[in-house]
Amino acid sequence: MSRSVQENTVSAVLYGTPAVPGVVAAPTVRPGPRVHVAVTHEPIAESDRASELAAFRRAAATVADRLGGRAAAAHGAAAEVLAADAAMAADPGWLDKAAEQIAVGLPAGAAALAATDHFADLFTILGGLMAERVTDLRDVCDRVLAELAGAPEPGVPVPDRPSILLATDLAPADTAGLDPNLVLGLATSLGGPTSHTAIIARQLGLPCVVAVAGLDDIPAGTDILLDGAAGRITVRPSAEAVALATAEHRVAADRAAAWTGPGATADGHRVEILVNVQDGAGARAARHTPAEGVGLFRTELCFLDREFEPTPAEQAAVYTEVLDAYPDAKVVLRTLDAGSDKPLRFAEHPEEANPALGLRGIRITTDNGLLEHQLDAIATAASTRTAPTWVMAPMVSTAAEAKSFAALVRARGLVPGVMVEVPAAALLAEAILEHVDFVSIGTNDLAQYTMAADRMSPLLATLTDPWQPAVLSLVARTATAGRVLGKPVGVCGEAAADPLLACVLTGFGVTSLSAAASAVTGVGAALAATTLADCRRAAEAVLGTTDPADARAAARKALGL
Asked: pLDDT in tens for each of the 561 residues of the chain?
């Protein structure tokens, strides 16, 4: 523990990776230790094994139902995460592995732990997005153990006053349940800027810093000042420092609150400001923002936690809710992005040495009818709209994939596009844009694949920072291709939610920015306060750097901030 953090009279400044911008000052609160459920390993008699298995399956089903109910009541990224956790609690592989242990005499709790250890080891070896699921899996196991023992469900306790939550790591299910009125900000010593925790924090509008060195040394109850944009935490700040930082943030917040759209720079250069949504509830809530439409409709929710593929009619009903929320506006649907960390029960997933590089996105929906069925459902939902409906495919890597997808989309009267998430797609952006009408850059995966760095690893968080110059070079290359061919290039990854980076992206030539609803006004206000020439100068300055921190500094200097 550092001396400065321990002493009450001396402040310390800690740095991590910026995840969600915003400035808050408050005392800290930490999750209480999870209730330790005593697990016996005493063998059980053969005559008791059937009832033990039944008790385990009841507990797992209860946890799955509880998480599924929370998913149904949530929206956006929180709904997706909770649905994925519910699916994990009902996963046949995990259930069967525990059942094997019970069949040879292990009690239910010990069997659940053994099954969890087995899959946690496997996920860790696989790495990539699969490693992200270890925290989720252990959280699900803890909930099942508590249910078996009749103990309280684990989770983050509700603070008795507005606080900043500090944790080594958080289960996504815990983050999704935070009350923004009591938890004002969030910092973790693990995680990355595109982790589920960070994404949900952005949806909730909670300033967030991740991968903070020394964070675990800060005790609960300590006053801190958290700056999410700078990735900085000041421990025991002076009253003057708090007053200055919060006043500056209030000015920016007031400017954002006053922005009503449409998206444009101070000299009138148009940039569409759109919103990312997951379902109808999220789309209807987003109508209260100045967003001009939907730049990313994630369609996974109606596929997860399903034993069988949803019918086109079932899918069309879900898509119609979002389309009806923006009947005359631009709506961009992303086709099913499953595989890897989001397996489908009804699709055959082969064992893969590296699932993050395996059957993901468009690769898992070809040759099995899934893509055609989904496009039919989208066409049905869009049939009564006067505005065109845009559809894009995830994980496209080649011009041939883009050409094939575009033909299927156009045959149904829809507007075809693809996601640029793979470096190959950015390098061949012109060739891909010859076949489709638009592209949208997913900066989360583009950073992961460009930097060969697991976006969930706290040790590699700086590599998956969207400000990495190598990543931004690929974004700039893609935007140039769009400008040459006269076709739109959007950004719908988490980078689009950063007001400073939004100005840089505009300088590259990006034509639309799609972010979480909570980030829309901040991005729009930032663009409205600068000129296109300033944005271009910032973009040029950033491309001359080799480090994320230097890139941020260069952008601020070019914009006079």
From this structure: 343 444 444 468 898 888 888 899 999 998 866 556 667 778 889 999 999 999 999 999 999 998 888 788 776 667 777 887 888 899 888 999 999 999 999 999 999 999 998 888 877 665 545 566 777 888 899 899 989 988 877 777 778 899 999 988 887 777 777 888 899 999 998 876 667 778 788 878 899 998 888 999 999 999 999 999 888 999 999 999 999 999 988 888 899 889 998 999 999 999 999 999 988 888 998 999 999 999 999 888 777 656 678 899 999 999 999 999 999 999 999 998 865 555 565 566 656 556 667 666 676 666 667 899 999 999 999 998 989 999 999 999 999 999 999 999 999 999 999 999 999 999 999 999 999 999 999 998 899 899 998 766 666 777 888 899 999 999 999 999 999 999 999 999 878 989 999 999 999 999 999 998 888 999 999 999 999 999 999 999 999 999 998 999 999 999 998
Q: Cα–Cα distance between 426 and 424 in angstroms, integer?
A: 5
Catalytic residue from among 208, 302, 492, 535: 492
CB-count burial class (<10 Å; 0-12, 13-18, 19+) for 138: middle
C-alpha 263/C-alpha 74 separation (Å) is 28
Active site residue 196: yes
Catalytic residue among 196, 208, 249, 535: 196
Three-state SS letters, 305-355: CCCCCCCHHHHHHHHHHHHHHCCCCEEEEECCCCECCECCCCCCCCCCCCH
What is d(CA 526, CA 499) in angstroms, rounded to the nearest whole number? 6
Predicted structure pTM score:
0.72
Largest Cα–Cα separation, the chain: 79
Clarify whether 373 is annotated catalytic. no
Whether 23 contacts 234, CB under 8 Å: no
Q: What share of the chain is helix, strand, coil (3-state, %, to 5)?
A: 50, 15, 35
Phi, psi of 9 (to 5 degrees): -95, -5
d(CA 414, CA 331): 11
Look up residue 497 and give its DSSP letter.
G
Cβ contacts of 121 within 8 Å, gap of 6 or more:
none
**What is the C-alpha to C-alpha distance for residues 130 and 352, in angstroms, rounded to an integer?**
11
What the block records as the tokens of 41 is: 């390993």
